[in-house]
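Recall that a protein's primary structure is simply its ordered list of amino acids. Everything else, from secondary elements to tertiary packing, is in principle encoded there. The following example makes that idea concrete.
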Amino acid sequence: MDAIKAIEKRKSIRSYVSKQVEADKINILARAANSAPKAGGFHISVITNTRVLIDIDEKALTAMKNSGNDFLTQRANTPGYRPLYGASALFVISAEKGPYAQATASCSATAVTIAATALNLGSCYMVSPILALTADSGLSAKIGVPEGYTPICAVALGYTESEDAFSTPREAADNINYCE
């Protein structure tokens, strides 16, 4: 799939099957993450260990319930809701503190979501796993976040429940103007 088609077809997938993403695809996605525009140091933690994913999922759910944020609390209390949606892989992007940390991490995450679509994998840009890592600094160390780096965002990855997950076209947005 070419880059433009992958960008246009990309969408947030919030349900995955239990099939593991192959190591060669994980490596392609890691290279894509590392190839994104950047302004400052950043780090990519790739998590495929099921026990660690479950730990992040459970701690994110607890943090959402205790966040004091009405939206997060309501979502976390929805029956059956799981913050990682059953994803078999998670990329956590951390960055050095600085004015461009969020932009750097988000560019890296965006590259992962587009590359995942090109590989026919589902993905979802998210921040809920960051709640788990903030609540448990030992978990950040466990996934290899370097000292002095802050987890900024994450991308859940996996195979979708439906083979046509990317086939529904989006409505054209009316949010562009041209100054010629």
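The chain has a mean pLDDT of 93. The radius of gyration is 16 Å.
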